[in-house]
Amino acid sequence: KDESKTKRLRTKPDVGLEPLKVLLVYTNIDGFHFDNYHFGLATLVSVTKNLGHNTKVEILTKRKHYANYEKTINEFQPDIVGFSSVSSQFLFVKDLAKIAKDLLPNVITIAGGVHPTLSPDSLLEADYLDGFLRGECEIALEDFLDRVSNGLPYKETDNFAYVEGDKVITNELKPLVNDLDTLPLPDKDIYPYFENSIKLTTAAPFFFTRGCPYTCTYCMNQSFADLYNRKRNFPRYRSPESCIQEIEYVVEKHSKDISYLSIGDDIFGPNLKWRKEFCTKYKKRIFEKYNIKMMVLLRVEMAQNDETLKILKDAGAFRIFFGVESGDEAQRREVLDRQMTD
């Protein structure tokens, strides 16, 4: 499908429709990594909010938080409960979907994220989930909510997967959005950005790109590319100006509480033109004005480029993270597809 044939997201609600109550749930129960802000789910909060729906977010990091979740279900009485799930969290998502159905038998329960996207057959073991929204879902979620609001068959939504008999039906995927500036910024109010990140760590997290040009065998990026019939999950970028404006919005409100920015893109600026423009703007409008530095993620090979390092240092980068993954060169090259020498 040609992306030009897909509609752009609405930014104003349809005043003729009764708003839905939508509860979006993120779990990181017994997780190995501290995960303080989920950019994908926060963007879906913005999509839902922009349509005029009443939206809440529930974050669970411990099993004892089930009680808080049950209380929210009882008090909020959602029409839809949506979960984001990686594989390690799917067991908990199934539990939480059952709780929602036990309390509200007519509630619609759906899940998205990496696990539902790459393992749709998991629906066969999830009796209390009505379906998955797979892949990149901002536009699909808007269509899904419109169908529910209008009493139309929501299972016909693109990107949706559901069980029919003993088989999983997977609908056609909408094309990826090439111009990320057409998407709303991740919500930072309903989704507790300050409380869950800056207040806890003094670092302000940001994420500006989608995808990665590399093909590491252990990463979901290549599987995601295969899903969309792409050779690689080539990065898509928001414009540097959009990124800087988002940073300014946060820094103007919280500069006294921020020690540094943590930019979590899989690879920061593999596109040299984008990197230069971003760093020029960041230096002038953030680093020189607020004296707030940034940390980024790079591939080791990129650190061999003196120009790249100079651009980053001049812009206020003070820390670079690398993933080595293995100290054995043969393991890296032959098993992990990380083509870097010792």
Automatic annotation (TrEMBL):
Keyword annotations: Iron, Iron-sulfur, Metal-binding, S-adenosyl-L-methionine
Residues annotated as domain Radical SAM core: 198-342
The B12-binding domain, residue ranges: 19-155
Cofactor: [4Fe-4S] cluster
Gene Ontology terms, MF aspect: catalytic activity; cobalamin binding; iron-sulfur cluster binding; metal ion binding
SUPFAM superfamilies per UniProt: Cobalamin (vitamin B12)-binding domain (SSF52242), Radical SAM enzymes (SSF102114)
The protein's name in its UniProt record: Uncharacterized protein
Organism, as annotated: marine metagenome
